[in-house]
Amino acid sequence: MPAIVVLGAQWGDEGKGKATDLLATTDPIDYVVRTSGGHNAGHTIVVNGEKYATHLLPSGILTPGATSVIANGVVVSPEALFRELDGLVARGVEVADLKVSANAHVIASYHATIDKVTERFLGKNQIGTTGRGIGPAYADKINRVGVRVADLFDEKILREKVDAALDVRNHLLTKVYNRRAIEVDAVVEELLSYADRLQPMVCDTSLLLNQALDAGQTVLFEGAQATMLDVDHGTYPFVTSSNPVAGGVCVGAGIGPTRIDRVIGVIKAYTTRVGSGPFPTELFDDDGVQLQQLGGEIGVSTGRTRRCGWYDAVVARYASRVNGLTELFLTKLDILGAWERIPVCVAYEIDGERVDEMPMTQTEFHHAKPVYEYFDGWMSDISGCRSFDDLPANAQVYVRALEEMSGAKIWGVGVGPGREQTVVVHG
Ligand code: GDP
Ligand code: IMO
Ligand code: MG
Protein backbone atom coordinates (compact mmCIF):
# COMPACT_ATOMS: atom_id res chain seq x y z
CA MET A 1 0.00 0.00 0.00
CA PRO A 2 2.15 2.92 -1.15
CA ALA A 3 0.14 6.02 -0.10
CA ILE A 4 -1.94 6.08 3.07
CA VAL A 5 -3.73 9.11 4.49
CA VAL A 6 -4.56 9.29 8.20
CA LEU A 7 -6.85 12.17 9.13
CA GLY A 8 -9.18 13.43 11.85
CA ALA A 9 -12.89 12.72 11.32
CA GLN A 10 -14.23 14.98 14.11
CA TRP A 11 -12.88 18.21 15.68
CA GLY A 12 -9.31 17.03 16.32
CA ASP A 13 -7.51 15.00 19.01
CA GLU A 14 -9.05 11.75 17.81
CA GLY A 15 -5.79 9.82 18.24
CA LYS A 16 -4.14 10.48 14.87
CA GLY A 17 -0.70 10.24 16.50
CA LYS A 18 -1.46 6.78 17.86
CA ALA A 19 -2.94 5.60 14.54
CA THR A 20 0.08 6.91 12.59
CA ASP A 21 2.54 5.36 15.01
CA LEU A 22 0.70 2.04 14.88
CA LEU A 23 0.76 1.94 11.07
CA ALA A 24 4.37 3.08 10.93
CA THR A 25 5.51 0.35 13.28
CA THR A 26 3.42 -2.57 12.02
CA ASP A 27 4.17 -2.05 8.30
CA PRO A 28 7.44 -0.81 6.87
CA ILE A 29 6.85 2.90 6.19
CA ASP A 30 9.42 4.94 4.27
CA TYR A 31 8.04 8.47 4.76
CA VAL A 32 5.71 10.09 7.30
CA VAL A 33 4.48 13.45 6.01
CA ARG A 34 2.68 16.48 7.43
CA THR A 35 0.81 18.39 4.72
CA SER A 36 -1.21 21.08 6.51
CA GLY A 37 -1.43 23.11 9.71
CA GLY A 38 1.57 23.81 11.91
CA HIS A 39 2.48 23.60 15.58
CA ASN A 40 -1.19 24.04 16.52
CA ALA A 41 -1.36 20.23 16.39
CA GLY A 42 -0.61 18.04 19.41
CA HIS A 43 -0.23 14.33 18.69
CA THR A 44 0.40 11.87 21.50
CA ILE A 45 2.26 8.62 21.10
CA VAL A 46 2.71 6.15 23.93
CA VAL A 47 5.49 3.59 23.46
CA ASN A 48 6.28 1.12 26.25
CA GLY A 49 4.46 3.38 28.71
CA GLU A 50 6.59 6.37 27.67
CA LYS A 51 4.57 9.36 26.39
CA TYR A 52 5.72 11.64 23.56
CA ALA A 53 3.93 14.63 22.03
CA THR A 54 4.65 15.99 18.57
CA HIS A 55 3.37 19.33 17.31
CA LEU A 56 4.95 20.45 14.05
CA LEU A 57 6.96 17.30 13.50
CA PRO A 58 5.27 14.21 12.08
CA SER A 59 5.02 11.35 14.59
CA GLY A 60 7.29 9.46 12.20
CA ILE A 61 10.20 11.37 13.72
CA LEU A 62 10.08 8.62 16.39
CA THR A 63 10.00 5.75 13.89
CA PRO A 64 13.43 4.34 13.10
CA GLY A 65 13.97 3.96 9.37
CA ALA A 66 11.23 6.38 8.29
CA THR A 67 12.03 9.81 6.88
CA SER A 68 9.89 12.64 8.24
CA VAL A 69 8.67 15.29 5.83
CA ILE A 70 7.15 18.72 6.41
CA ALA A 71 5.56 19.42 3.04
CA ASN A 72 4.65 22.65 1.25
CA GLY A 73 1.14 22.98 2.75
CA VAL A 74 2.45 23.29 6.32
CA VAL A 75 3.15 26.63 8.00
CA VAL A 76 6.53 26.28 9.68
CA SER A 77 7.75 28.10 12.74
CA PRO A 78 11.52 27.42 12.69
CA GLU A 79 11.63 28.34 16.38
CA ALA A 80 8.98 25.71 17.23
CA LEU A 81 10.64 23.20 14.92
CA PHE A 82 14.04 23.42 16.60
CA ARG A 83 12.51 23.54 20.09
CA GLU A 84 10.64 20.33 19.36
CA LEU A 85 13.66 18.58 17.85
CA ASP A 86 15.87 19.65 20.77
CA GLY A 87 13.22 18.48 23.26
CA LEU A 88 13.20 14.99 21.74
CA VAL A 89 17.00 14.79 21.58
CA ALA A 90 17.19 15.90 25.23
CA ARG A 91 14.98 12.91 26.10
CA GLY A 92 17.44 10.62 24.35
CA VAL A 93 15.25 10.00 21.30
CA GLU A 94 17.09 9.14 18.14
CA VAL A 95 15.26 11.47 15.76
CA ALA A 96 14.69 10.26 12.22
CA ASP A 97 15.83 12.04 9.09
CA LEU A 98 13.79 15.23 8.44
CA LYS A 99 13.03 17.05 5.18
CA VAL A 100 11.34 20.45 4.94
CA SER A 101 9.76 21.87 1.78
CA ALA A 102 11.38 24.98 0.30
CA ASN A 103 7.85 26.16 -0.52
CA ALA A 104 6.37 25.85 2.97
CA HIS A 105 5.37 29.18 4.46
CA VAL A 106 7.16 30.50 7.53
CA ILE A 107 5.60 31.53 10.83
CA ALA A 108 7.56 34.34 12.49
CA SER A 109 6.92 35.53 16.02
CA TYR A 110 4.75 38.41 14.77
CA HIS A 111 2.19 35.95 13.42
CA ALA A 112 1.52 34.72 16.97
CA THR A 113 1.30 38.33 18.15
CA ILE A 114 -1.31 39.10 15.49
CA ASP A 115 -3.19 35.87 16.25
CA LYS A 116 -3.55 36.84 19.92
CA VAL A 117 -4.39 40.49 19.25
CA THR A 118 -7.05 39.50 16.69
CA GLU A 119 -8.64 37.03 19.11
CA ARG A 120 -8.77 39.65 21.85
CA PHE A 121 -10.37 42.09 19.43
CA LEU A 122 -13.09 39.53 18.56
CA GLY A 123 -14.16 39.42 22.22
CA LYS A 124 -17.08 37.03 22.73
CA ASN A 125 -16.92 36.04 19.05
CA GLN A 126 -13.39 34.70 19.34
CA ILE A 127 -12.49 31.41 17.63
CA GLY A 128 -10.46 30.12 20.55
CA THR A 129 -7.36 29.59 18.39
CA THR A 130 -4.21 27.99 19.72
CA GLY A 131 -2.51 31.41 19.48
CA ARG A 132 0.35 29.95 17.43
CA GLY A 133 0.02 32.36 14.49
CA ILE A 134 -1.48 29.76 12.16
CA GLY A 135 -4.33 31.93 10.80
CA PRO A 136 -2.17 35.03 10.17
CA ALA A 137 0.51 32.94 8.41
CA TYR A 138 -2.07 31.37 6.08
CA ALA A 139 -3.61 34.82 5.56
CA ASP A 140 -0.21 36.13 4.39
CA LYS A 141 0.05 33.12 2.05
CA ILE A 142 -3.34 33.77 0.48
CA ASN A 143 -2.68 37.51 0.35
CA ARG A 144 0.56 36.69 -1.53
CA VAL A 145 2.78 38.41 1.00
CA GLY A 146 3.99 35.29 2.79
CA VAL A 147 7.62 34.39 3.47
CA ARG A 148 8.60 30.89 2.35
CA VAL A 149 11.35 28.65 3.66
CA ALA A 150 13.50 29.23 0.54
CA ASP A 151 13.41 32.99 1.21
CA LEU A 152 15.47 32.54 4.39
CA PHE A 153 18.54 31.85 2.28
CA ASP A 154 18.58 35.17 0.42
CA GLU A 155 18.75 38.16 2.75
CA LYS A 156 17.82 40.72 0.11
CA ILE A 157 14.68 38.87 -0.95
CA LEU A 158 13.82 38.09 2.65
CA ARG A 159 13.95 41.77 3.58
CA GLU A 160 11.72 42.73 0.63
CA LYS A 161 9.18 40.04 1.57
CA VAL A 162 9.09 40.91 5.26
CA ASP A 163 8.74 44.57 4.32
CA ALA A 164 5.76 43.80 2.08
CA ALA A 165 4.17 41.52 4.67
CA LEU A 166 4.47 44.05 7.47
CA ASP A 167 3.32 47.04 5.45
CA VAL A 168 -0.43 46.47 5.84
CA ARG A 169 -0.05 44.51 9.08
CA ASN A 170 1.62 47.46 10.80
CA HIS A 171 -1.13 49.84 9.71
CA LEU A 172 -3.63 47.45 11.27
CA LEU A 173 -1.62 46.95 14.43
CA THR A 174 -1.03 50.63 15.09
CA LYS A 175 -4.25 52.19 13.78
CA VAL A 176 -6.87 49.56 14.54
CA TYR A 177 -5.46 47.53 17.39
CA ASN A 178 -3.55 50.36 19.01
CA ARG A 179 -0.33 48.34 19.28
CA ARG A 180 3.32 49.01 18.52
CA ALA A 181 4.46 48.41 14.93
CA ILE A 182 6.68 45.39 14.25
CA GLU A 183 10.17 46.24 13.02
CA VAL A 184 11.29 44.78 9.72
CA ASP A 185 14.92 44.51 10.87
CA ALA A 186 14.01 42.52 13.96
CA VAL A 187 11.96 40.02 11.94
CA VAL A 188 14.66 39.65 9.27
CA GLU A 189 17.26 39.07 11.97
CA GLU A 190 15.04 36.51 13.72
CA LEU A 191 14.41 34.55 10.52
CA LEU A 192 18.03 34.69 9.32
CA SER A 193 19.16 33.20 12.62
CA TYR A 194 17.42 29.92 11.67
CA ALA A 195 18.79 29.67 8.13
CA ASP A 196 22.02 27.73 8.70
CA ARG A 197 20.41 25.01 10.77
CA LEU A 198 17.43 24.72 8.46
CA GLN A 199 19.27 24.64 5.13
CA PRO A 200 20.43 20.98 5.13
CA MET A 201 16.83 19.84 5.70
CA VAL A 202 15.34 21.83 2.82
CA CYS A 203 14.41 20.14 -0.45
CA ASP A 204 11.74 19.78 -3.13
CA THR A 205 9.49 17.52 -1.08
CA SER A 206 6.93 17.09 -3.88
CA LEU A 207 9.62 15.63 -6.13
CA LEU A 208 10.97 13.50 -3.29
CA LEU A 209 7.55 12.01 -2.48
CA ASN A 210 6.56 11.41 -6.09
CA GLN A 211 9.86 9.64 -6.73
CA ALA A 212 9.33 7.54 -3.60
CA LEU A 213 5.85 6.53 -4.80
CA ASP A 214 7.22 5.78 -8.29
CA ALA A 215 9.73 3.46 -6.64
CA GLY A 216 6.94 1.62 -4.78
CA GLN A 217 7.90 3.02 -1.38
CA THR A 218 5.26 3.56 1.28
CA VAL A 219 4.28 7.09 2.24
CA LEU A 220 2.06 7.84 5.21
CA PHE A 221 0.37 11.24 5.32
CA GLU A 222 -0.30 12.17 8.92
CA GLY A 223 -3.25 14.54 9.17
CA ALA A 224 -3.40 17.35 11.67
CA GLN A 225 -6.57 19.10 12.91
CA ALA A 226 -9.67 17.49 11.43
CA THR A 227 -12.56 17.45 8.97
CA MET A 228 -14.86 19.63 11.11
CA LEU A 229 -12.03 22.18 11.51
CA ASP A 230 -11.48 22.38 7.73
CA VAL A 231 -11.74 25.95 6.41
CA ASP A 232 -14.01 24.78 3.55
CA HIS A 233 -15.82 21.77 4.97
CA GLY A 234 -15.84 22.45 8.72
CA THR A 235 -17.91 24.61 11.03
CA TYR A 236 -16.75 27.92 9.51
CA PRO A 237 -15.75 30.37 10.97
CA PHE A 238 -14.93 28.18 13.97
CA VAL A 239 -12.23 26.31 12.07
CA THR A 240 -8.52 26.35 11.45
CA SER A 241 -7.12 28.15 8.39
CA SER A 242 -6.16 25.12 6.30
CA ASN A 243 -7.67 22.04 4.62
CA PRO A 244 -7.16 19.00 6.85
CA VAL A 245 -9.51 16.91 4.64
CA ALA A 246 -8.10 14.25 2.29
CA GLY A 247 -8.11 16.64 -0.68
CA GLY A 248 -5.77 18.93 1.24
CA VAL A 249 -3.13 16.21 1.22
CA CYS A 250 -2.72 16.47 -2.56
CA VAL A 251 -2.38 20.25 -2.47
CA GLY A 252 -0.24 20.22 0.66
CA ALA A 253 2.20 17.62 -0.63
CA GLY A 254 2.19 18.12 -4.40
CA ILE A 255 0.94 14.63 -5.24
CA GLY A 256 -2.01 13.71 -7.45
CA PRO A 257 -5.26 12.22 -6.06
CA THR A 258 -4.74 9.04 -8.11
CA ARG A 259 -1.72 8.27 -5.92
CA ILE A 260 -3.72 7.69 -2.74
CA ASP A 261 -4.67 4.11 -1.85
CA ARG A 262 -6.16 4.28 1.65
CA VAL A 263 -7.82 7.13 3.52
CA ILE A 264 -8.21 6.29 7.20
CA GLY A 265 -10.45 8.52 9.31
CA VAL A 266 -9.56 8.49 12.99
CA ILE A 267 -12.63 8.91 15.19
CA LYS A 268 -13.24 8.73 18.91
CA ALA A 269 -15.96 6.50 20.35
CA TYR A 270 -17.40 9.79 21.67
CA THR A 271 -16.73 13.40 20.59
CA THR A 272 -14.53 16.24 21.83
CA ARG A 273 -13.84 19.78 20.72
CA VAL A 274 -11.43 22.52 21.87
CA GLY A 275 -12.17 26.19 21.22
CA SER A 276 -15.45 27.81 20.20
CA GLY A 277 -18.15 26.73 17.76
CA PRO A 278 -21.22 24.53 17.42
CA PHE A 279 -21.14 20.97 18.80
CA PRO A 280 -24.59 19.27 18.74
CA THR A 281 -23.84 16.36 21.12
CA GLU A 282 -21.96 18.46 23.68
CA LEU A 283 -22.81 17.50 27.28
CA PHE A 284 -23.16 20.01 30.09
CA ASP A 285 -23.96 17.44 32.79
CA ASP A 286 -22.10 14.86 34.89
CA ASP A 287 -21.67 12.59 31.87
CA GLY A 288 -19.70 15.36 30.16
CA VAL A 289 -17.50 15.83 33.20
CA GLN A 290 -16.97 12.07 33.46
CA LEU A 291 -16.01 11.73 29.79
CA GLN A 292 -13.59 14.61 30.24
CA GLN A 293 -12.02 13.05 33.32
CA LEU A 294 -11.94 9.39 32.30
CA GLY A 295 -10.75 10.33 28.79
CA GLY A 296 -8.10 12.73 30.12
CA GLU A 297 -9.49 15.28 27.70
CA ILE A 298 -6.98 18.08 28.09
CA GLY A 299 -5.34 19.67 25.04
CA VAL A 300 -1.78 18.54 24.26
CA SER A 301 -0.74 21.92 22.81
CA THR A 302 -2.56 24.44 24.96
CA GLY A 303 -3.60 22.54 28.12
CA ARG A 304 -7.22 23.61 27.60
CA THR A 305 -10.03 21.34 28.79
CA ARG A 306 -11.79 19.70 25.86
CA ARG A 307 -15.58 19.96 25.53
CA CYS A 308 -17.09 16.45 25.50
CA GLY A 309 -20.18 14.78 24.07
CA TRP A 310 -21.51 11.49 22.66
CA TYR A 311 -20.61 9.94 19.31
CA ASP A 312 -22.16 11.79 16.40
CA ALA A 313 -22.86 9.50 13.45
CA VAL A 314 -23.97 12.44 11.29
CA VAL A 315 -20.47 13.90 11.64
CA ALA A 316 -18.98 10.45 10.94
CA ARG A 317 -21.03 9.99 7.75
CA TYR A 318 -20.11 13.51 6.63
CA ALA A 319 -16.40 12.84 7.25
CA SER A 320 -16.66 9.56 5.32
CA ARG A 321 -18.23 11.43 2.42
CA VAL A 322 -16.01 14.52 2.12
CA ASN A 323 -12.81 12.53 2.61
CA GLY A 324 -13.77 9.41 0.64
CA LEU A 325 -12.76 7.35 3.67
CA THR A 326 -11.81 3.75 2.97
CA GLU A 327 -11.70 2.94 6.70
CA LEU A 328 -12.26 4.28 10.18
CA PHE A 329 -10.00 3.78 13.19
CA LEU A 330 -12.17 4.02 16.31
CA THR A 331 -10.24 5.20 19.37
CA LYS A 332 -10.91 5.38 23.11
CA LEU A 333 -13.58 2.68 23.23
CA ASP A 334 -12.12 1.76 26.64
CA ILE A 335 -13.31 5.08 28.10
CA LEU A 336 -16.98 4.10 27.62
CA GLY A 337 -16.67 1.12 30.02
CA ALA A 338 -18.23 3.18 32.84
CA TRP A 339 -21.71 3.66 31.33
CA GLU A 340 -24.69 1.32 31.61
CA ARG A 341 -26.36 2.93 28.61
CA ILE A 342 -24.50 4.74 25.83
CA PRO A 343 -26.32 7.28 23.66
CA VAL A 344 -25.28 7.68 20.01
CA CYS A 345 -26.50 10.56 17.87
CA VAL A 346 -27.97 9.02 14.72
CA ALA A 347 -29.63 12.13 13.22
CA TYR A 348 -30.50 15.72 14.11
CA GLU A 349 -33.76 17.43 14.77
CA ILE A 350 -33.68 20.87 13.21
CA ASP A 351 -36.62 23.22 13.72
CA GLY A 352 -38.93 20.24 14.34
CA GLU A 353 -37.73 18.10 11.41
CA ARG A 354 -35.50 15.00 11.40
CA VAL A 355 -32.34 15.46 9.33
CA ASP A 356 -30.07 12.49 8.58
CA GLU A 357 -27.19 14.27 6.84
CA MET A 358 -25.07 17.30 7.71
CA PRO A 359 -27.34 20.32 7.10
CA MET A 360 -26.44 22.64 4.26
CA THR A 361 -26.11 25.84 6.30
CA GLN A 362 -24.29 26.79 9.47
CA THR A 363 -27.49 28.33 10.85
CA GLU A 364 -29.23 24.95 10.63
CA PHE A 365 -26.21 23.26 12.21
CA HIS A 366 -26.34 25.73 15.10
CA HIS A 367 -30.00 24.69 15.63
CA ALA A 368 -29.32 20.93 15.38
CA LYS A 369 -30.50 18.85 18.35
CA PRO A 370 -29.23 15.27 18.55
CA VAL A 371 -31.62 12.36 18.00
CA TYR A 372 -30.23 9.56 20.17
CA GLU A 373 -30.29 5.79 19.92
CA TYR A 374 -29.23 3.96 23.07
CA PHE A 375 -26.86 1.00 23.39
CA ASP A 376 -26.24 -1.24 26.38
CA GLY A 377 -22.85 -0.64 27.94
CA TRP A 378 -20.35 -3.37 28.84
CA MET A 379 -19.41 -1.97 32.27
CA SER A 380 -15.92 -3.46 32.25
CA ASP A 381 -12.28 -2.70 31.56
CA ILE A 382 -11.45 -3.63 27.97
CA SER A 383 -7.94 -2.17 27.91
CA GLY A 384 -6.41 -5.66 27.91
CA CYS A 385 -8.39 -6.91 24.88
CA ARG A 386 -6.27 -7.65 21.83
CA SER A 387 -8.76 -9.16 19.39
CA PHE A 388 -12.31 -8.33 18.38
CA ASP A 389 -13.54 -11.58 19.91
CA ASP A 390 -11.96 -10.57 23.26
CA LEU A 391 -14.33 -7.59 23.47
CA PRO A 392 -17.48 -8.03 25.57
CA ALA A 393 -20.58 -8.76 23.46
CA ASN A 394 -22.09 -5.29 24.08
CA ALA A 395 -18.87 -3.60 22.98
CA GLN A 396 -18.90 -5.67 19.79
CA VAL A 397 -22.51 -4.61 19.17
CA TYR A 398 -21.55 -0.96 19.75
CA VAL A 399 -18.64 -1.14 17.25
CA ARG A 400 -20.72 -2.93 14.61
CA ALA A 401 -23.57 -0.42 15.06
CA LEU A 402 -21.20 2.54 14.63
CA GLU A 403 -19.75 0.88 11.54
CA GLU A 404 -23.23 0.44 10.10
CA MET A 405 -24.14 4.11 10.58
CA SER A 406 -20.80 5.84 9.89
CA GLY A 407 -20.23 5.28 6.18
CA ALA A 408 -16.97 3.29 6.31
CA LYS A 409 -15.77 -0.01 7.74
CA ILE A 410 -13.96 0.09 11.06
CA TRP A 411 -10.44 -1.17 10.48
CA GLY A 412 -9.28 -1.04 14.10
CA VAL A 413 -10.35 -0.08 17.60
CA GLY A 414 -8.22 1.61 20.27
CA VAL A 415 -8.63 0.23 23.78
CA GLY A 416 -5.90 2.31 25.43
CA PRO A 417 -3.24 4.90 24.58
CA GLY A 418 -0.44 2.34 24.06
CA ARG A 419 0.65 1.26 20.61
CA GLU A 420 -0.26 -2.36 21.47
CA GLN A 421 -3.67 -1.47 22.91
CA THR A 422 -5.41 -1.99 19.61
CA VAL A 423 -7.95 -4.44 18.28
CA VAL A 424 -7.94 -5.08 14.55
CA VAL A 425 -11.48 -5.55 13.25
CA HIS A 426 -10.78 -5.94 9.52
CA GLY A 427 -7.18 -7.01 8.92
P1 GDP B 1 -4.35 13.60 17.91
O1 GDP B 1 -4.19 15.08 17.96
O2 GDP B 1 -5.45 13.17 16.99
O3 GDP B 1 -3.08 12.86 17.62
O4 GDP B 1 -4.82 13.14 19.38
P2 GDP B 1 -4.22 13.67 20.80
O5 GDP B 1 -2.91 13.04 21.02
O6 GDP B 1 -4.32 15.15 20.87
O7 GDP B 1 -5.32 13.13 21.79
C1 GDP B 1 -5.65 11.78 21.84
C2 GDP B 1 -5.40 11.28 23.28
O8 GDP B 1 -6.00 10.02 23.42
C3 GDP B 1 -3.93 11.05 23.60
O9 GDP B 1 -3.74 11.31 24.97
C4 GDP B 1 -3.71 9.58 23.29
O10 GDP B 1 -2.64 9.00 24.03
C5 GDP B 1 -5.03 9.02 23.72
N1 GDP B 1 -5.48 7.82 23.01
C6 GDP B 1 -5.41 7.51 21.70
N2 GDP B 1 -6.05 6.36 21.45
C7 GDP B 1 -6.56 5.94 22.63
C8 GDP B 1 -7.38 4.82 23.01
O11 GDP B 1 -7.78 3.99 22.22
N3 GDP B 1 -7.72 4.74 24.35
C9 GDP B 1 -7.30 5.67 25.27
N4 GDP B 1 -7.68 5.51 26.54
N5 GDP B 1 -6.54 6.72 24.93
C10 GDP B 1 -6.19 6.86 23.63
P1 IMO C 1 -4.70 18.06 16.41
O1 IMO C 1 -3.84 17.83 15.21
C1 IMO C 1 -8.01 20.20 18.27
C2 IMO C 1 -8.69 24.31 16.90
C3 IMO C 1 -8.45 25.41 17.93
C4 IMO C 1 -9.46 26.44 17.47
C5 IMO C 1 -9.40 26.31 15.94
C6 IMO C 1 -8.51 27.34 15.26
O2 IMO C 1 -4.00 17.84 17.69
O3 IMO C 1 -5.99 17.31 16.30
P2 IMO C 1 -5.87 27.63 15.07
O4 IMO C 1 -4.84 27.85 16.12
O5 IMO C 1 -5.65 26.40 14.25
O6 IMO C 1 -6.13 28.84 14.22
O7 IMO C 1 -7.25 27.39 15.91
O8 IMO C 1 -8.91 25.01 15.69
N1 IMO C 1 -7.55 23.40 16.69
C7 IMO C 1 -7.50 22.14 17.17
N2 IMO C 1 -8.36 21.47 17.97
N3 IMO C 1 -6.90 19.60 17.78
C8 IMO C 1 -6.05 20.24 16.96
O9 IMO C 1 -5.00 19.64 16.38
C9 IMO C 1 -6.31 21.60 16.65
N4 IMO C 1 -5.67 22.52 15.89
C10 IMO C 1 -6.45 23.61 15.92
O10 IMO C 1 -8.71 24.95 19.23
O11 IMO C 1 -10.76 26.04 17.87
MG1 MG D 1 -4.19 16.63 19.35
From TrEMBL:
Pfam families: Adenylsucc_synt
UniProt: IMP binding residues: D13, E14, G15, K16, N40, A41, G42, H43, T130, R144, Q225, T240, R304
Keywords: Cytoplasm, GTP-binding, Ligase, Magnesium, Metal-binding, Nucleotide-binding, Purine biosynthesis
Binding positions (substrate): V300, S301, T302, G303, R304, T305, R306
Function of the molecule: Plays an important role in the de novo pathway of purine nucleotide biosynthesis. Catalyzes the first committed step in the biosynthesis of AMP from IMP.
Record SUPFAM superfamilies: P-loop containing nucleoside triphosphate hydrolases (SSF52540)
Pathway: Purine metabolism; AMP biosynthesis via de novo pathway; AMP from IMP: step 1/2
Xref: CDD domains: AdSS (cd03108)
Binding locations of GTP: 12-18, 42-44, 306, 332-334, 414-416
Cofactor note: Binds 1 Mg(2+) ion per subunit.
Keyword GTP-binding: yes
Catalytic activity line of the entry: IMP + L-aspartate + GTP = N(6)-(1,2-dicarboxyethyl)-AMP + GDP + phosphate + 2 H(+)
Positions bound to Mg(2+): D13, G42
Protein name per UniProt: Adenylosuccinate synthetase
GO MF: adenylosuccinate synthase activity
Family that this chain belongs to: Belongs to the adenylosuccinate synthetase family.
Cited InterPro entries: Adenylosuccin_syn_GTP-bd, Adenylosuccin_syn_Lys_AS, Adenylosuccinate_synth_dom1, Adenylosuccinate_synth_dom2, Adenylosuccinate_synth_dom3, Adenylosuccinate_synthetase, P-loop_NTPase
Enzyme Commission designation: 6.3.4.4
Cofactor(s), by name: Mg(2+)
Active-site positions on this chain: D13 (proton acceptor), H43 (proton donor), K141
Lineage of origin: Bacteria, Bacillati, Actinomycetota, Actinomycetes, Propionibacteriales
HAMAP family in UniProt: Adenylosucc_synth (MF_00011)
Record's subcellular location: Cytoplasm
Keyword Metal-binding: yes
Quaternary assembly: Homodimer.
